[in-house]
Amino acid sequence: MNTSVRNTGRLLGAALRALLVLTVVCGVLYPLAVTGVAQGLFPAKANGSEITSGGKVVGSSLIGQSYHLPKKDPDDAGEAVRPDLRWFQPRPSNGLGTNSVNTQYSLILSGATNRSGDNDELIQWVKDAKTAVAEDNSTAGRPVDRSDVPADAVTSSGSGLDPHISPEYAELQVNRVAEKNGLDAGKVAKLVGQHTDGRILGFIGEPRVNVLELNVALRELTGAGGR
């Protein structure tokens, strides 16, 4: 009996020592080492790829933002959301819709609609979006045809939070952005070119434009007080 108790005591002691050692190594030393290496070698990425403007953090280059006009009635859930046409617009980000569980916060849920390509509702969404994009980006003497609207202007990504648009969609918005901000279209087009990233290593992915970074540069160019 005494031998059994002693063996049990030894096993419990070994287990507690192992728990203590693993807690210190895996719960303290390893996280500190990883954090230290990340902060030392990749501080910007380790801190969330934050973008600053005017000395303030305005977002992350990894997460898309919307640029909408404020609602006339903030409490009216049925009021249509209107884009603020002074700014370059991102891909649609409706995703799965708004948060309906925790209503304390106004959140956009991330995700895809999971509708098939031949879904009637999705097809109608795309048609309506093409019409809206063409109308929004048509300027005096420079109408935009629905056939000129690229796919990323009317479809969301799988997450609904894509921070990038295609150079074609950015270029489509140049004249409208220039007109709304009283700028020369050539300067705005040059801004788009400066913020267009090519394929990774020359062959991976597609050329892309980060909308937040582009709008921050536009804000600095115009001296606008808003986002």
Query: How many helix segments?
Result: 7
The rounded distance between the terminal residues' Cα atoms is 75 Å
Q: Mean pLDDT, rounded to whole units? A: 86
Count all strands and give the number.
5
- Largest sheet, spatial ordering of strands: 3-5-4
What share of the residues lie within helices?
40-55%
Overall 3D shape: elongated
Regions with pLDDT < 50 over 5+ consecutive residues?
Answer: none
Which sheet architecture does the biggest sheet show? 3 strands, antiparallel
Class inferred from helices and paired strands: mainly alpha
Q: What's the Cα radius of gyration?
A: 25 Å
How many domains, as an integer? 2
Features:
elongated; 3-stranded antiparallel sheet; mainly alpha; 227 residues
Overview of the structural elements:
The chain is mainly alpha-helical. It has two domains: 2-43; 50-222, no CATH class. It has helices at 2-41, 43-46, 120-137, 167-172, 174-181, 185-194, 211-222; strands at residues 50-53, 56-60, 164-165, 196-197, 208-210. The strands form two sheets. The protein has a three-stranded antiparallel β-sheet with strand order 3-5-4. Strands 1-2 form a two-stranded antiparallel sheet. Strand 1 (50-53) and strand 2 form a beta hairpin. The protein starts with a helix and ends in a 5-residue tail after the last helix. 18% of the residues are buried. The mean pLDDT is 86.
